[in-house]
Design goal:
Length: about 500
């Protein structure tokens, strides 16, 4: 896997996808010096600052950074987006399966129009899916859709034929990747979202104006600016000075350092899972007992409090904390230094190296703190800090290491299991579950149409991952954002703000 592809996986994390409770935004208004303060007031310009990078085009195949995705979500709509409590319909009005969940019928919402005034049709949806499927990474999400057999039943109804049963189709497939473009072509810039691009690029940022065909009452503002500010501290200064209205992804310390702006911490649903990848294919972590020793050697609350400045929650080595369906009986392992020491001594584990980079805040600090905690359990741990700009340059080499630091965008358990585990997983870094037995159990759970039975099967898989998996998911880092005071809320999906009213 190339670094660019890997970064797109991290950025879109398709992942499932996650959505935080809410963020906020404010206006640029001459009458108040550039920042609207009155709740409910019609806004002029919403200014968002986010991380970005030159050379990214406005298409899912090229977008990697938050800034670029913020523009994509402003211009285009998805059939389904991620929500606080699961999948939410956006362009779709409803989605219904046949008896065995091999065919899903999706109806579009009434009156949806593109910015050129033409109606959004079922053919546009299918053309968009065919375009998305061409991309090696995003296409993985749609792999179970037989696009050749799928069809438009009428102008507003799409019938998706699947190659295998997917009772989780709405959340785990459509909720990850279902953007719709006029004629299936993202290069024409014609979407059904609240804005259209006026000017800009991924190096300097963009200016957008209102889409006249989008319901005005749902728009946050008449105009939108997305500014590219790569440095998190610089984004903090920008929102604190009033240069921008919303600054996305700030350091955890922004909760204390912001003065005029407000720090907003949405919570665990808008979070990243920070983890140490214990390679299940090489020594010493190919031994499940050694993996267990590593998991109980750590004080996860201390890691969260110190590495994340308390802005997070301890992890239990499975995805989905904060979303419905998370099995509450699965708790973060309690630290047991003596038992960890006993196992390490029995297995002859005396030392290892954690490779890390501060690609996401908390990764390096977490590795340093974990090293000291492992030493208390009798293992000497060296922390190898690498350049974050090249950390994922050679994923093949990284995945051969015994242990390294990584992260993922949090998502509901049901879709998170297929994202992190199994032989077909987009983000399986540890190798856990890459066998026919696990694949079969995961496929059986995805095919189960009874919600209760499917939830039980997913919980059983989660318990197995918790016990034996290679993801030492030590903490969920809650997103910290900066906003102006007294501004309307807006949702976040896939860790990207959506410029529409909640």
């Amino acid at each position: 896997m190339q670094r660019r592809t890997f970064l797109r996986i991290l950025a879109t994390a398709a992942a499932a996808a996650t959505a935080g409770p809410v963020l906020a935004a404010c206006s640029s208004d001459p009458s108040d010096g550039g920042n609207g303060k009155e709740p409910g007031k019609k806004l002029d310009t919403l200014r968002i600052a986010a991380i970005g990078a030159p050379g990214e085009g406005l298409s899912p195949a090229e977008a990697m950074s938050t800034a670029t995705w913020a523009v994509l979500y402003a211009v285009y709509e998805s059939l389904v987006i991620a929500g606080d409590d699961g999948a939410l319909f956006q362009l779709a009005a409803k989605a219904e399966p046949n008896d065995d969940a091999t065919v899903w019928t999706v109806s579009l919402r009434d009156g949806a129009k593109f910015s050129d005034g033409s109606p959004v049709t079922a053919e546009d949806v299918l053309a968009s899916f065919r375009e998305t499927a061409k991309d090696p990474m995003k296409g993985m999400t749609l792999a179970d859709i037989d696009l050749g057999a799928s069809s438009a039943k009428d102008d507003s109804t799409v019938e998706f034929t699947l190659s295998r049963p997917r009772a989780d189709f709405v959340g785990a497939v459509l909720g990850l990747s279902s953007l719709v473009f006029k004629g299936g072509d993202p290069s024409n810039g014609i979407g059904s979202g609240p804005y259209v691009v006026d000017s800009g690029d991924s190096g300097q940022g963009w200016k957008l104006t209102a889409n006249p065909e989008y319901p005005a009452e749902k728009r946050i503002s008449d105009n939108l600016e997305v500014q590219v500010i790569a440095d998190a501290d610089a984004r903090s200064r920008a929102v604190d000075s009033g240069a921008v209205d919303l600054a996305v992804d700030l350091p955890a310390t922004a909760r204390r350092s912001l003065r005029t702006a407000e720090a907003w911490v949405p919570g665990t649903a808008d979070s990243k899972g920070l983890m140490f990848i214990l390679n299940t294919t090489v020594a010493p972590f190919d031994d499940p007992d050694v993996r267990r020793a590593a998991k109980i050697a750590l004080d996860r609350r201390a890691l969260v409090d110190q590495a994340l400045d308390g802005a997070g929650e301890p992890g239990a080595d499975i995805p989905g904390l904060g979303f419905p369906g998370y099995p509450e009986k699965i708790k973060a392992p309690k630290r047991d230094i003596e038992e960890a020491r006993r196992i390490f001594e029995k297995k002859g584990v005396k030392e290892f190296t954690i490779v890390t980079a501060d690609f996401s805040p908390g990764m390096n600090d977490g590795a340093e703190l974990a090293a000291r905690q492992f030493e208390e359990a009798g293992v000497k741990v060296t922390v190898d800090k690498r350049d974050p700009t090249t950390y994922f340059a050679d994923m093949g080499a990284l995945k051969k290491l015994p242990v390294f630091a990584s992260y993922f965008v949090n998502r509901p358990l049901e879709s998170g299991l297929s994202f992190l585990t199994g032989s077909k997983a987009m983000f399986n870094l540890s190798g856990f579950g890459s066998n026919p037995e696990w694949d079969g159990k995961l496929a059986a759970a995805q095919a189960e149409t009874d919600d209760g039975r499917r939830a039980g099967m997913i919980a059983d898989l989660a318990e197995e991952m918790h016990e034996d998996g290679g993801e030492l998911l030590w903490g969920y880092a809650n997103a910290v954002h900066g906003r102006a005071e007294g501004v309307p809320d807006m949702p976040v999906s896939l860790s990207v703000p959506l410029p529409e009213k909640k």
